[in-house]
Design brief:
Blueprint lengths: L1 H15 L5 H7 L4 H29 L1 H20 L4 H28 L6 H29 L7 H18 L6 H5 L15 H23 L1
Helix pairs in contact: 1-5, 1-6, 1-7, 3-5, 4-5, 4-7
């Protein structure tokens, strides 16, 4: 469980790592407020449909295979940021970042549960949720510290650190066993749908609607 939580942490760091660099990109590429806003938002616009598709098809494709692919896509995004010389490369990197985290989120919880005994599932889910939020905060913190104290190629050096982190997460993922072989033998048609089962719908919304709205509103404002 600890190894998978480390992968969770790194991928969550990656999702918000760019945040302190937005002012630098705005100055370097002469981006206006609208362009910066789109650069911030295109990630979420791509993440959501990716999450729906991959979350529904993850078991069919193979959970570990999807997680591996998501890390590789995140590495590709980081390399694109690292070598960027034009604005379109920033948008392309953000799109890849959205695809990477959307595909990761859609399968990571299921893969984590398969790594542990049934009596630890509740603890694992709680820890994974906490790890994601820690990663969301840690990513901008790491990038900000690098920008504040290294003063060396601010649009390049932070991504070298992120690249090393992603490679370590990929190596750690490869040490984890996969448990979906039986599912891969007979791929089933999976219907992609969005919703909450009727039996738990009222309880679900009464418990999570307001807290989720509040937390992510505050988080979005803080990151902006």
């Amino acid at each position: 469980m600890k190894r998978m939580l480390w992968v969770y942490l790194i991928m969550s760091c990656c999702a918000t790592f760019i945040t302190p660099l937005f002012p630098l990109y705005s100055e370097h590429y002469q981006l206006n407020s609208l362009q910066i806003t789109i650069l911030f938002a295109v990630y979420a616009a791509i993440l959501l449909p990716t999450l729906f598709v991959v979350g529904a098809r993850g078991n069919t494709w193979g959970l570990k295979r999807v997680l591996r692919s998501s890390i590789w896509i995140s590495i590709a995004s980081t390399l694109l940021f690292l070598g960027s010389f034009d604005v379109w490369m920033l948008y392309a990197a953000r799109i890849l970042e959205g695809i990477a985290y959307g595909s990761f989120t859609g399968t990571a919880a299921a893969f984590l549960i398969k790594q542990i005994s049934p009596n630890k599932v509740s603890t694992a889910i709680k820890l994974s949720g906490a790890t994601v939020l820690i990663g969301f905060g840690l990513g901008p913190a790491i990038a900000g510290l690098i920008l504040q104290y290294l003063h060396l190629q601010p649009l390049r050096v932070p991504y070298w650190f992120l690249l090393v982190m992603l490679i370590t997460s990929l190596v750690i993922l490869e040490t984890l066993p996969k448990h979906e072989d039986s599912l891969m033998q007979k791929p089933a048609k999976t219907k992609i749908s969005l919703g909450v089962p009727n039996s738990i719908r009222s309880h679900f919304w009464s418990f999570v609607a307001l807290p989720i709205f509040t937390v992510f509103t505050i988080q979005g404002i803080a990151l902006s």
